[in-house]
Amino acid sequence: MSTTGKVIRCKAAILWEPGAPFSIEEVEVAPPRAQEVRIKIVATGLCGTEMKMLENLRIYPIILGHEGAGIVESVGEGVSSVKTGDKVITLFLPQCGKCTSCLNPGGNVCIKFKESQNGLMSDGTTRFTCKGKSVYHLTNTSTFTEYTVTKEIAVAKIDAGAPLEEVCLISCGFSTGYGAAINTAQVTPGSTCAVFGLGGVGLSVIMGCKAAGAARIIGVDINKDKFAKAKEVGATECISPRDFEKPIQEVLIEMTDAGADFSFEVIGNPETVAAALTSCHESHGVCVIVGCMTVGVQLNISGRLFFSGRSLKGTVFGGWKSRDHVPKLVSDYMAKKFNLDPLITHTLNFDKISEAIALMKTGKCIRCILTL
Q1: Which of the 8 DSSP states describes residue 237?
Q2: Of 168, 159, 189, 217, which Cα lies nearest the Cα of 42?
Q3: pLDDT category of residue 70 using cuts at 50, 70 and 90
C-alpha cells in the first residue's frame, strides 16, 4: 500500500536532553512539502562529529545522524532531480546552485547550510513528531531514523547498483578526508605528508594523499592500535607523540628534513593544529584543518609561523560540491578507484546505536555502520 502523502510511523533514535542516551522511539514522519524529499534510510554511519555533538547540542529533542544512504519514498511538489525508488545519499552540506558559494568554482559552503543550523525546515517547522512533541532535524539530514525528510538540495541521486551499506560513508567521512588531500591541499606527486589523527576521516586523508601520488605519508596518533590500518590504506610510517620527549612537530621536522610538504589536522584539537602547522615546511608547507573543533574554541598560533611561505587552510566536506560530486565519487567507487572496506570495522543493527557509541569511545572502531 502506498505511503505517499501520508504520515509514516517508524523507529528513530532521539536525544531528549543534554547528557541523556539515545532513546529508540516511535516517531511520526510527515510527508515532504514543496522542494522536499522523504527517504527510507537503509544505512547510516556513526561519525566522530556526532560524538562531539553529544556534548555541544543546544536544541532538544533532536534526531541526529548525517552520514546516510537510502531510497526515495516520496517527493514533494516541484522536486525534479529525484523520484520514488531512486537510491540517494543524504548531504549535510547542501548545494542550492544559486548562492555566491555555489556559483564560485572553488566554493562549496552553500548559504543554505548555515540556514539549517536551527533544526528546522525552510518553512520554520519540523517533519518529526514524537509523543506529541515536535522533534528537531540535524543539518538537512537526521539519518538516525527509518524515514527522514530532507530538502531536495540536500540529496544526491546515485548509481542504482551501489551498495548503500558502504557508500553511505561518501555522505561525510570518506569524502571529507579524501577531498581534503585532493581538493583543498592539492597534494602533489612525490611529496611528503603528515596526517594527525587516524580515525575514519584521517585514514581517508591518507587514501587521498596516496591517490595524489605522495611518496611519504606519516600517520600520527597516540593510539598505536590504529597504525596497522593506516599502513593498510597507504601510510608509509606511523609515530606516536608519546614515544618522544620532544614536541611531535620537532620530531617531524627532523624526520622530513625541514618539514612536511602537507600536513593535516584531523582531530579538532587547537594544540594539534599548532603542531601540524609548525611541522610543515616553512617555505611552502600547506596545513589543512580537517577536524571539527568545539564551538567557541580559539586557536593560539604564533604569528612568526606566517613570516614564511606556510599556509593554513580550512575545509568542509573535502571541498566537494555535494550534489555535483557525490554521484561521481560513488561511480568511482563502483569502478574500484578506491576501497571503502578498510574504513568499516563494525556493522550493527540500528537499535544498537548506544553500543556503537561505546565502541567509538574505546578507539577500537574506525567506522560503525548502522543498518535499518
Answers
A1: E
A2: 168
A3: very high
Average pLDDT along the chain: 95
- Weakest-pLDDT range from 50-54, 82-86, 94-98, 312-316: 50-54
pLDDT at residue 332, as a whole number: 98
Q: Is 287 a catalytic residue?
A: no
Q: In what order do the strands lie in the sheet with 8-14?
A: 8-14, 23-29, 128-130, 133-135
- Predicted confidence (pLDDT) at residue 3 exceeds the cutoff of 90: yes
170 contact partners, CB below 8 Å, separation of at least 6: 89, 326, 329, 330, 333, 340
d(CA 173, CA 166): 12
- Judge whether 365 counts as a catalytic residue: no
Pairing of the two strands 368-371 and 133-135? unpaired
Rounded average pLDDT over 30-39: 98
Confidence of residue 309 (pLDDT cuts 50, 70, 90): very high
Work out whether the CA dihedral 110, 198, 267, 135 comes out positive or negative.
positive
The CA radius of gyration of the chain, in Å to the nearest whole number, is 21
The model scores a pTM over 0.70: yes
Active site residue 325: no
47 labelled catalytic: yes
Catalytic, 66? Answer yes
Q: List the catalytic residue out of 50, 67, 146, 265.
A: 50
Instruction: Verify whether residue 51 is a known catalytic residue.
Output: yes
List the beta bridge partners of residue 288: 264, 313
Is 99 in the active site? yes
Place of cell 537510502: 70
| Distance between CA atoms of residues 27 and 17, nearest Å | 17
**Which is the catalytic residue, given 67, 121, 137, 172?**
172
Element (H, E) at 273: helix 270-279
What's residue 168's pLDDT?
98
